[in-house]
Amino acid sequence: MTVGTDPPGSLADDLAGLVGREHVRVDDGALTAYARDATPLYTARPHAVVLPGSTDEVAAVLRYATDRGVPVVPRGAGSNLCAATVPLSGGIVMALTRLNRVLEVSPAELLARVQTGVTTAALSDAAARQGLLYAPDPGSRTVSTVGGNVATCAGGLRGLKYGVTRNHVLGLEAVLPTGEVVRTGGRLWKDVAGYDLTRLLTGSEGTLAVITEVTVGLLPAPEETGTGVAYFDSLADASRAVAAVIASGVLPATLEFLDRKCVVAVEEFAGLGLRRDAGALLLFGDDGPTGAVAGTLARIGEVCADAGSPEVTLAEDVARSEALLAARRCSLPALSRLAPLTILEDATVPRHRLAEMVDRIDDIAARHDLMIATFGHAGDGNLHPTCVLDPDDGAAVERSHKAFAEIFAAAIELDGTITGEHGVGAAKLPYLADRIGNDQVALLRRIKRAFDPAGILNPGKLGS
Amino acid sequence: MTTDRPSHRSPREPVAPAAPRKPTPGSGRESGPTPGPTPGPASGPGLGVFDKDLLDRCISCGFCLPACPTYTLTGQEPSSPRGRITLMRALESGDLAPDDPTLAEESSFCLGCRACEPVCPAGVRYGALLEQWRDHQWRGRDRPLIARLLMALVSRPALLRLQGLVRRHARPGRRPGAGARAGTGAPQATRRDAPEAASSRPAEPVSLMLGCVERGLYPAVSRAVRTLRPEVDVPPGQGCCGALHAHNGDSAAGAELAHALGERLPGTIVTTAGGCAAHLAHHLGRGRVRELSEYLELTGHRPAGRVTVDGRPARVALQDSCHLRNGLGVTRPPREAIAAVAEYVELPNAGDCCGAAGTYSMLRPADSRAVLAPKLAAIEAADVDYVVAVNPGCLRQLRQGLRRGGSRVRALHLAELLALAAAGEAGGSGGAGKDRGEPEAPAD
Ligand SMILES: Cc1cc2nc3c(=O)[nH]c(=O)nc-3n(C[C@H](O)[C@H](O)[C@H](O)COP(=O)(O)OP(=O)(O)OC[C@H]3O[C@@H](n4cnc5c(N)ncnc54)[C@H](O)[C@@H]3O)c2cc1C
Ligand code: SF4
Ligand code: SF4
């Protein structure tokens, strides 16, 4: 389905020669649609969009782009929140949605091999059908692609127990901007030959190579899962409960919190019967062998009650657990019901400083007269302060930029970081040196040059 | 703290873009797309095509992508709900010309199935946006010819009446018990059914709406309703509900027709068409409009009889009507009604659009068939005897698709299935075992 089949200019013709005309778009409409991702306020149009159908086609396009010095922005589902796929310098957006086959699931080796455009949920489902678990569980799982997850090193709701995407990637097939195809890592859990390029590419945000195939490690699916909810008077109280839970020696799979505004917004969408009057909510969950989960949940419930929770409830069945987790996953879009502009940020602090960070965010919001709701992966110290405001109120928008600058600075001051899972993208590039220092920024640039001598891959992002 | 640095983002000029390192090869096009930022979310006075607060709701999170059948077909952003909303914003703000070919293409490629609505946590009312978009895009001669013809046809009650004469329909104004004879092929009300219906005769009048498509193609459906629920009136002189107009770029006529029909049909309006139900409910209020399965449940009607095939309970699947499911959230009642008379089989993609989508199957037959294909495959794989629709357009689409594929599966409207079950019990003939043909055939 292509509109405007005869675009002027040889870029379109050249690309059509490489991937087929129906997989090249240069019409104004398509360029507009690919001018943004899930990040508000950033748009820039590419000159062309290509949708390659194979690794060879990816290589051909990249070789061509390197020869001509045309920027290329790899793109999965465009669900990132840091303007990572906005083509700031124009050029080509390379959408990888056609590479969407699950190539194999191997119960014997506990791994799966997928093309890059497979959604996270499709990978999880394919694993589950064989009684296996793909542990990373980003909130965007139904939309986001495995390639995008690897490129951003996505975290998720099960991060506390299972870590982030990085901890589950065994090997990659990737195409360098020069067109060389590299296979890093492989099918082994133990393999220490050479620099760990798999890890280097994981989190490289489309600036070093285009990932075309991913091999991930799987786990036996847990026999049981369970979820509970503890209400609190305030988010600060909930944060203290998080510290108490961890200190008590249990390590649940999930420990998420939402402040009151988030609870109300989520309830509005999902209608689960959550208490709208609570100041904050802690969603905890665990999985494991039959019989073990109930014990962990009960223990967490006790700790929460001791920490001041007036009400703790456990989900009666799996369906309800799933509903709770699904509701939590949509906190961001649900929040957007409050005002037309919703800016979500991502900062992480050491767990024991969570309550302090929550207080700081509250204070910053109050000083700038902004409505900032907060939710996040509390167990990981990963917060998503989210500002909801009116885009037509220019002064408020300005204040929100200042507020977020202060929030990042506060995170760094508390030994935290400017992003725990969403990545740097274009949105946080100005803050990167604050976190890692100028020397490391320079090193990043040298690495970038080694992979991408012509500097065509995702300019204006990491390594630029 | 570094609060004095230039803000990391600003609404108008997000990030100064680096110039392309070299001029893009060969894009010797004067007015070609230039790299660099375009304005952010539409603000200030726009074209006025869209309601600003409707358009502002979308935050481009992409949660709607996997639900969208056209995005599933292409994997391309412009044919996703999020992409289309981005296109609408560009139209509103003037970033895309009103005659942009992609705008035209995407407004027509969209099925209007609204599968993107229930999955949107932000509560974006995509269906309303699409109507506004088509109002703008499909004006006058820009409206597809077939849509124009159909709209002209159904706007004339006289022509609709003519259809009713040609195809024997439930007789307006009279009850089967009051001298009217239901079509010969239509099963009669069963003994068990009749007294119950009489006793639960509501105080409020109940009117059956004769859908435009249905009265032409499937008169057996309304006949079946009358045998199931004799208390339902069929007032004469019904017009069109206007859904067709609203979905084809004439919201004003759509609203007008809905209100006019609302005045002509007293009391609760029962429809056998999911699309009409959603459109009427939007304009007349949810309380006045009941889709058949909902009405049956609400009035405590327990479907009678069994549908059997070769002596065993028939295996029956449901095809949700998009507008019923996504617009009104009705999913359980039709399933329970089927389960009461047969072995209910859930298709894995029962909630996915079948591609009929009102006039879509006529306007874009190839795309329509592509959307239908996985559904047909699932129906075959499920090894069912019947697949039930709750909307005449879907019924037609399924029948054609199944016939084309040489399938042994038959498509029925829910009303027909229930009437078949009731007749099976009444007549003691062993149900549908022998005659698996489409029940309205003898009557026409
Ligand atoms: C509602 C919502 C909830 C979210 N929840 C979470 C969460 O819980 N945890 C989390 O970590 N993130 C979350 N995200 C952010 C986002 O979904 C993730 O960053 C996700 O990994 C992006 O995947 P994608 O396929 O959409 O990639 P894109 O957004 O398309 O791309 C992201 C980056 O990866 C690069 N890239 C994409 N594909 C490739 C490839 N094949 N090769 C090389 N580079 C590539 C792009 O160039 C870009 O830099 C959420 C987002 C939303 C909207
Ligand atoms: S329509 Fe809803 S689900 Fe889709 S991108 Fe917009 S906010 Fe997200
Ligand atoms: S109405 Fe249907 S086809 Fe149109 S955007 Fe929504 S989900 Fe896609």
UniProtKB/TrEMBL annotation, chain A:
Cross-referenced InterPro entries: FAD-bd_oxidored_4_C, FAD-bd_PCMH, FAD-bd_PCMH-like_sf, FAD-bd_PCMH_sub2, FAD-linked_Oxase-like_C, FAD-linked_OxidoTrans_Type4, Oxid_FAD_bind_N, Vanillyl_alc_oxidase_C-sub2
Keyword Transmembrane helix: no
UniProt superkingdom: Bacteria
Keywords: FAD, Flavoprotein, Oxidoreductase
Transmembrane intervals: none
Names of the cofactor(s): FAD
Family per record: Belongs to the FAD-binding oxidoreductase/transferase type 4 family.
Name this polypeptide is given: FAD-binding protein
Species this protein is from: Streptomyces taklimakanensis
UniProtKB/TrEMBL annotation, chain B:
Protein name: Glycolate oxidase iron-sulfur subunit
Organism, as annotated: Streptomyces taklimakanensis
InterPro entries xref list: 4Fe4S_Fe-S-bd, 4Fe4S_Fe_S_CS, Cys_rich_dom, Glc_ox_4Fe-4S, Helical_ferredxn
Disordered: region residues: 1-47, 170-202, 425-444
Note accompanying the cofactor annotation: Binds 2 [4Fe-4S] clusters.
Its EC number(s): 1.1.99.14
Keywords of this entry: 4Fe-4S, Electron transport, Iron, Iron-sulfur, Metal-binding, Repeat, Transport
Keyword 4Fe-4S carried by entry: yes
